[in-house]
Amino acid sequence: MLPTEVRVTATTHPLFGRLVPASGFQRRSGVLLLVVTLPDGTPGTIRADATDILNESSGEPTVTVLSVEGLRQLRLLVTALTPAPKRRNRPKTRK
To answer: DSSP letter string over 26-86?
Structure first.
């Protein structure tokens, strides 16, 4: 089972959606933790239930995360599909 890569599945975790190498387990205060290598190369721990290691559904809804560039493209698409506002013709006043 270990070593392996695990995906962080907790939507509230800063590494949500990322794959991290896991090399072992620890238990602290009754909580099962995974020993992982963080993206910057340092060792760390993540709660096992915040990953897909246990193959349990977290019960949290699936969340799609857009990149900044993806968000820009989406804004351009919405802008292009939005009709231009209609201009009101103001009555001309005579002097």
So the answer is: EEETTEEEEEEE-TTS-EEEEEGGGBSTT----SPPP-----HHHHHHHHHHHHHHSPPPP
**Ordered per-residue pLDDT tens for the chain, 95 residues:** 678 899 999 999 999 999 999 999 999 999 999 999 999 999 999 999 999 998 755 455 555 667 888 888 989 999 899 887 777 776 676 66
d(Cα 89, Cα 30) in Å, to the nearest integer? 72
- Strand-pair category, 31-37 with 43-47: antiparallel
Q: Which amino acid is at 64?
A: T
pTM to 2 decimal places: 0.56
